[in-house]
Amino acid sequence: MSEATGVRGGRTRFFWGWYVATGAFLVLAVNYGARYSFGVFVQPMVAEYGWSRSVISAGMSILVLAYGIGGIFAGRLADRIAPRWIITAGASLMAVGLLLTALIREPWQFYVTYGVFGGFGAACMGVVVCNSSVGKWFIRMRGLAIGISSVGIGVGTMATVPLAGFIVKNFGWQMGFVCIAACVLIIGVGLSQWLMGKTKPEDYGLRPDGGGAGRDAPACNPKFFNIPSALPSLRPVLTKSPFWIMAVCYSLAVMAEMSVMVHLIAYALDQRIDKVAAASSLGIIGMASILGRFFFGWLSDHIGDAKYASALGFFLMAAGMFLLLGTTSVATLFVYAILFGFGYGSMSALMPFLLADRFGPQILGSSYGMLVFFVTGIGGGAGPVITGYIYDLTGSYTDAWLLNLAVLVIVSFLILTLKKR
Question: Quick check: pTM over 0.70?
Answer without folding.
Answer: no
